[in-house]
Each structure stands twice: as C-alpha cells, then as structure tokens.
UniProtKB/TrEMBL annotation:
This is Uncharacterized protein LOC111277368. Coiled coil: none annotated. The gene is LOC111277368. Residues 36-135 form the DUF7731 domain. InterPro entries: DUF7731. The chain crosses the membrane at residues 144-165. PANTHER family: OS07G0289901 PROTEIN-RELATED, TRANSMEMBRANE PROTEIN. Residues 1-32 form the signal peptide. It comes from Durio zibethinus (Durian). Keywords: Membrane, Signal, Transmembrane, Transmembrane helix.
C-alpha cells in the first residue's frame, strides 16, 4: 500500500514538473530569458525609461496602450525632432525584450512602426498617427495563441491528475 502511494506521488510530482516545463516553454517571450511576467515588466519599463525618452514632449510619446497622440499640426515637430527617434528606440527596447509584444489596443510593434512610417511620410497619410486607421480591425494572433497554449497546458494537467487518481 505504501509503495503504491509512493509510486503515485512520484508520478504526480513528475507530471507536475512536466506541466511546468510545458507551460514555461509555451508562453512565448521572444528573446527574453526570464519568466513572462518579468519580461512584461521589463518591456513596460521601456515606455518610462528616462534614458530613452529624454527630449520628446510627453504628450506625443507612445504609451503601453499603443496610442500615439500626435495632432496633425505637430507632425513636423514629431517627425523631424527627437520624438520619432526616441519612439523608435522604445519600440526597439520592447522588441528586444518581447518580440511578440501586443499593445492594449491589439497593435503589434510592427503595426506601430507602420504607423510611424506612414504618419511621417509625405503621402496622404502624413500626420495620421491613429493606429486603428492602419490595421483596421485586424487583430494580432499573439495573445490568442498564448491563451490557447495556457488552456492546453491546464487541460493536460487536469487529465493527468484524473489519470493518476484512477
């Protein structure tokens, strides 16, 4: 009886370790070498890093929500001054930490780069920094994939738990 209980305990412990390994591997953190929550915190730090945003007017800065609040009349100031370069540095900082970072508005780093390129271009889109106008409802699949993998890992844990009990 004690041997059977010990065997089940070892099997359950082994299963939990496998679950943790699957969970940690399936939460895609891009280039990050730490836990996802720590990587996310580091990525958010990029938006408030005093060494990156030094001269750009705070009203025009990219934020975690994925919004660029640059009015059309400030386009020249934004595009030819320090704001464009500093915003690109923030995107590079975030991308180096979490390559699949998704902003609160569902925009990706690539989406924001496209907005910057078009907003500062000399085309009909010059001065338009409204992210929603560019990806027009297309939503990144990064979060959906992450949620699917977490659900799959949890389902695996539940099934394994019942198999061990029976």
């Amino acid at each position: 009886m004690a041997a059977a209980t010990s065997s089940k305990l070892k099997c359950f412990t082994c299963f939990n370790l496998i679950f943790v390994a699957i969970f940690c591997c399936n939460v895609n953190t891009g280039n990050a070498q730490s836990f996802p929550a720590q990587s996310l915190a580091k990525a958010f730090f990029c938006f408030n890093n005093k060494f990156i945003y030094t001269r750009c007017n705070e009203a025009y800065r990219l934020n975690e929500s994925g919004n660029l609040n640059v009015p059309r009349e400030a386009t020249d100031i934004f595009c030819t001054g320090p704001c464009l370069a500093e915003t690109q540095l923030v995107l590079k900082c975030v991308d180096n930490i979490l390559s699949d970072f998704t902003f609160y508005n569902k925009a990706t780093i690539r989406d924001i780069r496209e907005v910057l390129r078009a907003g500062c271009s000399y085309t009909s889109r010059r001065g338009n920094f409204d992210v929603g106008d560019y990806f027009q409802g297309e939503i990144s699949e990064a979060r959906a994939l992450c949620n699917f993998m977490i659900s799959l890992s949890a389902l695996t844990l539940i099934i394994g738990f019942y198999v061990l009990i029976l």
